[in-house]
From TrEMBL:
GO molecular-function terms, A-Z: ATP binding; ATP hydrolysis activity
AAA+ ATPase domain location: 200-327
Protein name: AAA+ ATPase domain-containing protein
Pfam family, one: AAA
Ranges of compositional bias, category Basic and acidic residues: 54-66
Location of region: Disordered: 1-33, 54-78
Length: 408
């Protein structure tokens, strides 16, 4: 490999500008050529080689797009942006979403004829690995955007194994929901409608008041199954029927390809009964019904107003669960869960919040989201005062919120 290098300015590890001497290297030894170039540019060649080697091997690893990874502090190459979220690595769909990208790479499979269909690409050697891109392409689930990520900032997800057990729901319902979801992923091709490609989804409608675990159910099911969770609302799809048609079709195709769980939160705009007075919303509902017929994945719908549901949805929903308001036993479980997770700057936990205090807290009519918010504010108050989290901190927040505390 012949390499001609020009004089350039580089910065060494200690921050001192280091001029690189002019060289004209022509050698068949890839290793010696690469080494001579890199040695002139950086102070610690060994560590740089090790980093390039590690990043290259991670970038080259053959991962399907369903593998979920976490980007703790990644930045895009053009408009740099820090993001801490879960991502799905999917280079092929990244290219589809960015057709005008300057570097468009066709899959190598397109260039292999049928006679070489069984051909296996040999593993990369160390010097090939050094030349791989430091960036990987994927979808940021929180940002809802296709982005590029530095490979050394992408890490495997540590799924919360105990999340499903902490869901405040009867064991019978929990087993039923999880069984439906897992069976859909494993056997979705085994059931088809009269028309091929229809009826391959599992749709579950969760209804009830706010803060009682509807959204959490979808989240912990995805966590238990170790698959991505894509959350959307009606606003994410646009306001016109044309926007909804285009965006919903693309989104459902993408989520199905990942074997992900799709959550449509507060879906009342789609479920509400159609009327002759609002033709545009009628078109949106019709589009949603049609798209739902051909969806091939798991869909959770949440709503507060099941009584207003359009009749056409009844036959398209496989499981409907009504969530009751929380009773004292359920609230106690939620308080206990958040208290067990509580930590302060000094590493201390729930402090003097004993069983009597729990009984007092459980008697207050709060939903799960309100309990979570009160616990968060109580922890912040404890951190600010420099003391361990205590019952007094929680009572202070409750009083500010206007909650009546009985017995204490």
């Amino acid at each position: 490999m012949a390499v001609d290098s020009e004089p350039v300015e580089a910065v060494s590890d200690n921050g001192v500008d280091t001029p690189v001497s002019e060289t004209s290297q022509k050698s068949d030894d890839d290793a010696s050529t690469t080494e001579k170039i890199i040695i002139g540019m950086v102070a610690d060649t060994k560590d740089v080689f090790a980093k390039f080697d590690a990043d290259g091997n991670r970038s080259w690893s053959d991962k399907p797009p369903t593998d979920l990874e976490e980007a703790p502090e990644n930045e895009t190459t053009q408009n740099r942006e820090r993001t801490i979220c879960r991502i799905v690595l999917d280079g092929a769909r990244w290219e589809d979403a960015n057709p005008n990208h300057l570097i468009h790479m066709e899959s190598i499979l397109h260039e292999v004829d049928q006679s070489q269909a069984d051909y296996e690409m040999p593993p990369l050697n160390n010097y090939h690995v050094l030349l791989t891109s430091p960036m990987v392409r994927g979808y940021a689930l929180k940002n809802k955007r296709w982005m590029q990520f530095f490979v050394d900032g992408v890490h495997e997800i540590e799924f919360h194994e105990g999340a499903f057990a902490s869901l405040v729901l009867s064991q019978e319902r929990k087993k039923l929901i999880l069984a439906f979801a897992e069976s859909q992923v494993k056997h979705r091709d085994s059931f088809d409608d009269v028309v091929k490609g229809k009826g391959r989804s599992i749709v579950m409608l969760l209804s009830g008041g706010p803060g009682i675990g509807k959204t959490l159910t979808a989240e912990v099911v995805a966590e238990q199954m170790r698959v991505p969770l894509y959350t959307m609302s009606a606003g994410d799809l646009g306001s016109s029927s044309d926007d909804v048609d285009e965006n919903l079709s693309k989104l459902m195709s993408m989520v199905s390809n990942w074997n992900a769980v799709l959550l449509l939160d507060e879906c009342d705009v789609f479920l509400e009964e159609r009327t002759a007075a609002d033709l545009e919303r009628n078109r949106i509902v019709s589009i949603f019904l049609r798209t739902l017929e051909y969806y091939e994945g798991i869909l959770f719908l949440t709503t507060n107003r099941i009584a207003n549901m359009d009749d056409a949805f009844q036959s398209r929903i496989h499981l409907t669960l009504e969530y009751p308001n929380l009773d004292a036993v359920a609230r106690r479980t939620i308080w206990t869960t958040f208290l067990d997770r509580a930590t302060c700057d000094d590493g201390s936990g729930k402090g003097d919040i004993d069983e009597n205090a729990l009984s007092t807290l459980s008697a207050i009519d709060l939903n799960g989201r309100q309990i979570k918010n009160i616990m968060k504010m109580s922890q912040l108050l404890a951190m600010q005062t420099g003391f361990s989290l205590s019952f007094e901190h929680v009572k202070t927040v409750l009083r500010i919120q206007g909650c009546a505390i009985h017995g204490n």
